[in-house]
Amino acid sequence: MKKVGNILSDNIYLELRNITKTFPGVKALDNVSFDLRKGEVHALCGENGAGKSTLIHVLGGVYAPNAGQIIINGEEVKFESPLYAARCGVAVVYQELSLVSNLSVAENIFANRQPIGKLGMINRKKLYADTKEALKLFGLENDIDPSVRVGDLSVANQQVIEILKSMTNNPKILVFDEPTSSLTSVEKDELFTNIKKLKGMGISCIYISHHLNEIFEIADRVTVLRDGKHVTTQNVKDVDEDKLITYMVGREISNIYGRREADEKIGDVYFEVKNLSLKGKFKDISFSLRRGEILGISGLVGAGRTEMGMSIFGVMPPDSGEVWLEGKKQKLSSPFDAIENKIAYLTEDRKVQGLFLNMSVRDNYIAPDTFKYAKNGLRFINNKDADNAAEEAVQKLKIATPSIMQKVNNLSGGNQQKVLLSMWMGINPKVLIVDEPTRGVDVGAKNDIYRLLRNMAKQGIGIIVISSDLMEVLGISDRILVMKEGQIVGEVNCDEATEEKVVSMAAGVGTAL
After folding, report:
1. Which of 140, 513, 163, 489 is nearest to 305 (CA)?
2. Which residue from 2, 195, 315, 470 has the fewest beta carbons nearer than 10 Å?
3. pLDDT of residue 7
4. Where does residue 53 rank: exposed (0-12), middle (13-18), buried (19+ CB within 10 A)?
5. H or E element, residue 100
6. Angle 155-167/185-200 helices, nearest 10 degrees?
7. How are strands ordered across the β-sheet holding 487-493?
8. How far is CA 474 from CA 61, 252, 296, 407, in A?
9. DSSP-derived secondary structure letter, 374
């Protein structure tokens, strides 16, 4: 370490000075500076591709910068690896989980730090006791068994374990990268309570989130990056959401969700779900959908919303019940049946279930219906037709890619989500189910996705939006259904819907059936 002078006059504990990081053909960070005060929560904002993840990877020791300095507590440091960064007190909770599903909760939280007994064996009794203490931070000591496999937990609880894994390492700087993406509102509140506790202990936090309301709830300052450059650093109390969005996207967005035009009418009922049930997942689900309607499905994590959507699409065939489209009863035995009948389902996890990451934009676009591009009815793809269709989709959806032959894995999260949406638009669906359509994407990409959904509804396509983002459901939907414990417990029209009303129904406090 090298002393670089007194930078602590403003209680600054961490300083990144003029950080530059380049990859072949791309300057991901261009002379970016950032500082973090002791006991501060500093939010980091920007669209996908703005440089946030690269900056965090530099701080976490994953990437070495091409130029610039990292200074901690007045000493210049060079992180040669994530392990060295951790030894310097930097812990990063990445958005992508790094848990080992076959190991227990305790083994994941204290990986490589398990207590050892006299004979060199792991002291299981102490390991489980320490894990119980860690779980108390989220009030889960009685709900999660330290010995249970992480792979058997819900995604939300896996996210909690990922966070505890870092929090129990006694960091001085804790970085949260989209930590609430899979948390319920209750778990989010618990997380924020613990972040405030960390502040009181003098621990500094960097908080990255696409949910701007969270930034105003938890952060002291906010820094905005755009195109790899530092745009501004502001006290949170001195900016509002509209101003922050303008800094992020470089243009003003007056209404991110858009609105239904006055002369745009919703059609008649043409799609119905009747008494749909799947044991252990959901029960007696019945609802209708009108042409051009956007129907929101809200509820807490575990309410059965995703399972219902997957059942309609044929991934998880129901035990009983019926689905009717345009007066015809539909088979629910497989996704192939759903696609044949123009029912599409955009999965909540684009990387695991939705996209072929190592394949090109073009090949992903044609994947749901390759027969459409078969040459003269044979098994060979007509490349010209496929290329033209993919090019048209890229232009229509404003997918930022150097080529339709670019691997999807190399695109930003927002552009990956647009590719996923384009896949299902390509089959010309009559019903489109979108599950968490904007999870992990920036505000600019969200605006584009909402615009695309509204345009599809304008064409008479009925859209079902399943989302954990309550503001998204309220902003995009014409009508909202609320699910709790596998059943629909409430229905409310958009002009009557409020956060309080929907949350109370989801929690079982009130209904509006």
Report:
1. 489
2. 2
3. 43
4. buried
5. none
6. 10
7. 343-346, 431-435, 462-466, 294-299, 479-484, 487-493
8. 40, 21, 8, 34
9. B
321-349 pLDDT tens trace = 999 999 999 988 899 999 999 999 988 77
Strand boundaries in 98-215, DSSP class E: 173-177, 204-208
Measured CA to CA in angstroms, residue 379 lies from 359, 374, 376 at distances of 19, 6, 9
CA 42 vs CA 38, 86, 106, 208, 218: distances in Å: 10, 19, 30, 9, 9
3-state DSSP helix/strand/coil % of the chain, to nearest 5: 35, 25, 40
pLDDT confidence of residue 513: 44
Strands (E) across 354-474 are located at: 431-435, 462-466
Dihedral, CA of residue 347, residue 351, residue 357 and residue 362, to nearest 10: 30
pLDDT at 509: 62
Give the DSSP letter of residue 298: E
Token reading at 48:
């996908």
* Residue 511: band (very low, low, confident or very high) from pLDDT cuts 50, 70, 90: very low
Distance, in Å, from the CA atom of 169 to the CA atom of 221, rounded to the nearest integer, reads: 25
- Nearest CA among 437, 462, 439 for reference residue 450: 437
Distances (CA, A) of 12 to 40, 194, 206, 264: 9, 22, 13, 54
Report d(CA 379, CA 372) in Å as an integer.
10
Which residue type occupies 345?
A: Y
Cβ atoms of 445 and 48 closer than 8 Å? yes
